[in-house]
Amino acid sequence: xxxxxxxxxxxxxxxxxxxxxxxxxxxxxxxxxxxxxxxxxxxxxxxxxxxxxxxxxxxxxxxxxxxxxxxxxxxxxxxxxxxxxxxxxxxxxxxxxxxxxxxxxxxxxxxxxxxxxxxx
Length: 120
Prior knowledge:
By secondary structure, this protein is an all-beta fold. It is built from no helices and eleven strands. Strands 2, 4, 5, 6, 9, 10 and 11 form a seven-stranded mixed sheet that branches. It has a four-stranded antiparallel sheet with strand order 1-3-8-7, with no helix packed on it. Strand 5 (46-51) and strand 6 form a beta hairpin. The termini are far apart.
């Protein structure tokens, strides 16, 4: 059974940092692409970063240069390091498992999410 469990969210000040973690189980983690997405109240979900099984990455424009996605295949964890946080980064962040090795493949599972709030 596929499970994705996020952690690391919380309250951060503008300009601050947070690191999110997503612990995966129930599938061969190293074979699949993973992504982080977010959903703010009243808005549609937005994929912010993805990492393929070869560790090639994707970022949406609004987070380029500020967020870094990485993966630890031995520990089955995908991370999202978020720096220079802005109030508009406030959202529920959740991780996604893709159906294949590339970040262009559709996703088939998501976690419950972890809340990130950026406010002074």
